Structure formats: C-alpha cells, structure tokens
Amino acid sequence: MSTARVAMIGHAFMGAAHSQAWRNVHRFFDVGLTPQMSVLVGRDATRTAEAGETLGWQRTATDWREVVTSDEVDIVDICTPGDTHAEIALAALAAGKHVLCEKPLANTVAEADLMAEAAQRAAHDGVRSMVGFTYRRVPAVSLMREMIAEGAVGTIRHIRGTYLQDWLVDPASPLVWRLQADKAGSGALGDIGAHILDLAQFTTGQRITGVAAQTETFVTERPLPDDPSRSGAVTVDDAMVALARTDGGALCTFEATRFATGRRNRIGLEVNGSHGSLAFNFEDMNVLEHYDPSDGDRSGFRRIQVTEPTHPYVAAWWPPGHGLGYEHGFVHQARDFLTAIAEGSDPTPSFTDGAQIQHLLGAIEQSAGQQASWTSLP
Ligand code: SOE
C-alpha cells in the first residue's frame, strides 16, 4: 500500500478533528493509501510545535507557501479561517496537490468560483479536491439519502433544516474570528447554515432555486479576546432564517443560530413526502426516524438505530448498538477522499458543489439585505 503525505494548515478545533481522522482512517478502513501526517503549518512557531506534538504530526512549519509547493507533500488539508482558503487552495492546486478544504469553501462567491474553476482544471491532471461538509458522512444522514433515493418518502413536499447553537448567548463572550466578516465571511449563515443547506440538497438530491431570508446580529459589540477592557464590533450575523424552494417542488425552511439557548449543537433535518417522512437530529446522531403511513392505525415515527454493518460506513467500526460520535464523520471524510485519490475518481462534495453553496449564502445575504418580500405591520 502506498502512502500520501499530508500537510495540514491550521491546528485549532478543525485541525484537531482532521488530525484525528488522518491518524485513524487507515486503521479502520481499507483506503488503498496510507496517510502520512507529514507537516502541520501554523502562524506561531511555538504553538504550532506544541500542537504538532499533541496531534501527532512529524514536523511543523510556519510558511504555508513553502509547504504547499514542496515535493514532499501530496495532500493539502486547509483548516484555517475562511479568509485564507482561496489563496492556499489556489496555490496548492497550481502545485498539483490534492486539496481538502474546510467549509464554507470561501468567504465570497467570487473566490469560490475561482476555486471551483481551478479545481476543474486541475482534475484534468488527476488532482482531486473536496470541500469538508462532514455531516454528510454521519451514517444516519447517508442512510437518509439512500432511503429517499429508494422512494421512502415519495414526492418531497417539505425540507426543514435547523442548526442551533448557543455559544454566543453571553454578551461577554469574546470577539473571536468567527464574529469578524473579514475573517469568516459571514456568521451563523456560513458557519452552520452552510451545513444544513448542503444536507438538504445532499439527502434529497434536489437543488435550491430561490430564497427569501432574514438575518440578525443580536449583540453588536463584544470584548476583544486579548484585552477584555476594550470592545470591538461584531460584523457578522448571529442568526439567519430563510424560506426556499427546490427544483423538485419542495418548500423549505432553514434556521441557523448561535443564540438558541440550551441548544448546544443541534442539527435537525426533516423531510416530509407524499408517502412518508424521515427525520434526523444530531443530538441523537445514531438514530434516523422514519414514518411510513402504510402502517395504517399502527403508524408512528420509528427509530432506526443506524449501527448495523449494512448501514453506510458502520461495518468498519463497532458491533451493532455501540454507536459513533462527532469525530467519525471526519474519519469517513478522509476515507472517501483517500479512496477517490487512490481510485482516480472525483470526490464529492467537489469545489463546484462548495461554490454552489456559496452562491446560496450570497443569495441569502442579498435577500436579507434588501428586505424585498418583507411586509411590515404597524
Ligand atoms: C463552530 O460554530 C463550528 O465549529 C462549525 O464551524 C462547525 O462546522 C460545526 O461542525 C460545529 O460548530
């Protein structure tokens, strides 16, 4: 089995999650390529060296430009804030490296389009790229997609997506990069709203064709992380709600917020169709709920425990009923990416898929900004 030498840029929350995947993927899955955790890149030499030691990287560096063009690297894994995604990905693709990039793909539609074009060009030379919508790879979500494709719900009428967090409820919570538009692009919209837009399209196979949205920033000033006696402006949304329609005739609602007090990281996705419903809730992530009206007066949502070896990704893990957690989605993502590289196929979600989500984020911002279909009451 040959190896793929990985360079990862960034070592915060996502860097730790991706490291967990690179460390374990080949120990559980037959991927045809063993990842070698070659080099971890960060801005601060000391902190990067500490992270490299903790997370299991062979060496560390501070200059991503030197690393992504190095002959000793095959895969570049981008786990930085959104403002650097485009620059790093374009340089890595130009150097012929396979690229895995965290979501949302970029901070702007223009950047995302450039990245998608570059990825399509690079694919002609066998260079693979993928965007990290990792929740697709939760087994219950993958099973939901399979069941919808098999006709388990019939004609889809409603798609209801919610991503609820509460880590900003406290106004004293600091002004981290995720609250700055120049670093993050947008707030709840791009950070977590992007996930539910992706999941809605992924599970149903339908495309969102139009949106009407509202966004809100509830706390507009927050203490600076390095000097809490001073404050700075929050320049992104705290919450977003959107109505949407799909090319398959479904009516959708989406809600993404960091102010849902008590909801720590709750992702909900429900699809209602002419012949049934499917519902997923990340807080109970090993379960998929299915309602089949043909059960007559014994109908009711039943809980499918998605821990059988026949379910997506599960056979590689534990016996039935033992369950998986948050980090397994990242392992599955690494598995699918490495498999595509080894087989010479194009992985999904592609940068083109990531750019399509970026267009949706842009459309939601535009709709929220123009208030076009909002009817005010006295
Ligand atoms: C922060 O809100 C965050 O880490 C997102 O960036 C991730 O995509 C999500 O999985 C968990 O929350």
From TrEMBL:
Residues 143-278 form the GFO/IDH/MocA-like oxidoreductase domain. PANTHER family: BCDNA.GH03377. Keywords: Oxidoreductase. This is Gfo/Idh/MocA family oxidoreductase. GO terms for molecular function: nucleotide binding; oxidoreductase activity. Residues 5-122 form the Gfo/Idh/MocA-like oxidoreductase N-terminal domain.
